[in-house]
Inverse folding.
């Protein structure tokens, strides 16, 4: 019987590749998508399509409205999304699109699901290379959360070990695109834009769009993104 793993699946490029890595490693993949009040809700539809495409064993959706707390341009429709920034600007500090403690919340939900279904492996698509600037995408955060899992769960205190897998954390976006293509993922199913229009078309100007487009260009892989 295959080992079970929980994969956080946002519908973006990185999370899709991370979930595919779990499948390629032989895990029975149980996907978890969190509706946290993100304004780029087109990603949620993409997550459903990616879960079907990867033949995940299950796909759960959980709503936790972080938008009610505020503090992020990703959850406040009235807040401006940074646009047309060059690489130096994107690398210069934590951007307005940071959602306070988002990955801590999402991983806590994934950990709860993992313990409930007997999984001991968690996969997520965080990346610390391509100018994200987010503190909860760094290896130090991931290592700390893995230690937390050992003392915060019944399974952990009884001697079972939870493993946190971030297979993309040190890859460039071009490397991630190449890996996704090698794993046979239909990358056209993924969505990465922070501010898509009502039809789900990407803006092409936000940090996420610019990093994604550069990744496809440098990887030499045709960009399937639909831009408005």
């Amino acid at each position: 019987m295959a080992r079970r793993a929980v994969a956080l699946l946002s519908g973006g490029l990185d999370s899709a590749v991370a979930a595919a890595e779990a499948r390629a490693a032989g895990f029975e993949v149980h996907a978890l998508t969190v509706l946290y009040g993100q304004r780029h809700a087109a990603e949620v539809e993409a997550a459903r399509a990616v879960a079907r495409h990867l033949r995940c064993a299950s796909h759960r959706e959980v709503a936790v409205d972080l938008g009610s707390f505020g503090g992020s341009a990703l959850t406040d429709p009235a807040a401006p999304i940074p646009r047309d920034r060059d690489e130096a600007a994107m690398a210069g500090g934590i951007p307005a699109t940071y959602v306070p403690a988002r990955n801590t919340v999402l991983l806590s939900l994934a950990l709860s699901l993992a313990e409930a279904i007997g999984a001991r492996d968690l996969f997520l698509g965080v990346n610390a290379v391509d100018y994200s600037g987010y503190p909860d995408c760094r290896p130090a955060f991931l290592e700390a959360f893995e230690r937390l899992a050992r003392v915060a769960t019944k399974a952990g205190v009884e001697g079972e070990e939870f493993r946190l897998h971030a297979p993309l954390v040190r890859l460039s976006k071009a490397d991630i695109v190449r890996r996704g293509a090698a794993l046979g993922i239909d990358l056209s199913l993924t969505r990465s834009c922070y501010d898509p229009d009502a039809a789900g078309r990407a803006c092409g100007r936000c940090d996420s769009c610019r990093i994604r487009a550069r990744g496809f260009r440098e990887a030499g892989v045709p960009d399937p993104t639909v831009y408005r």
Summary: The chain is about 35% helix and 10% strand. The CA atoms of residues 24 and 183 lie 8 Å apart.
